Amino acid sequence: MLSKRIIPCLDIKDGRTVKGVNFVDLQDAGDPIELAKKYSDIGADELVFLDITATHEKRKTLAELVERIAIEVSIPFTVGGGVKSVEDAGVLLHAGADKIAVNSAAVKRPELLTELADKYGNQCVVLAVDAKLTEEGWKVHLVGGRERTEIDLFDWVVQAEELGAGEILFTSMDHDGTKSGFALDALRKVDGLVTIPVIASGGAGSEAHFLDLFTKTDVSAALAASVFHFQTIEIPELKHKLAQENIPVRII
Fold first, then answer.
1. What is the tens place of the pLDDT at every residue in 26-54?
2. CATH code, domain carrying 84
3. How many CB atoms lie within 10 A of CB 13?
4. Which of 59, 121, 128, 246 has the fewest CB atoms within 10 Å, i.e. is most exposed?
5. Catalytic residues
6. What's the number of domains the chain is made of?
7. Does residue 177 belong to any structural domain of this protein?
8. Is residue 124 part of a domain?
9. Does pTM top 0.90 for this prediction?
10. How many whole angstroms separate alpha carbon 125 and alpha carbon 121?
């Protein structure tokens, strides 16, 4: 059985790591380079680096910062934010990223997923999906959660896999930053609809939430931010707890 992955997320704004609740009220969470090195050293399985305002502010992800972070880490590293083309992705991969995450641009032009997969391989293509439960069901949101669409979450992940996505990073906007647990029902459904790995994001607040995730769904990985940045949960201790509960994890 493949090991379950624990993935810290570095949300970047103006060169700093930030974290909010339900995508708003952002607080400074530290220097991204220092955090990235720390996580790599203590046993995180991967890192995700999202420039959360790149699309909104109509600018590209800071490739220079990506390059500086990549030098400091020895684990796979996904970068997203403002990626709209094969060329944008190439800049980030050249700077040191292992995978590229796309969200708004893929919704607006789904063929981007195919173009990226054809050029770099689907193992490099992560579809990041921000979704919120509405009266009409789970709807995809864009531009850092600012813009609602009428696209159904579950239809979109199925289409994305068909187009070339190699991994799904699903963030429940309702759970983001709340520390109330992951959106287990939605995650089970997403995971059951695709054959590619699914990363759960939004809601981690305790070790028990990770245990619930890995015992009650078959997702491949759990992503969290504030609980790691502010040391509410320490990754080595979390992994030992999971291992004690017979969850397969990589322990260094």
1. 566 678 899 999 999 999 999 999 886 66
2. 3.20.20.70
3. 19
4. 246
5. 11, 130
6. 1
7. yes
8. yes
9. yes
10. 7
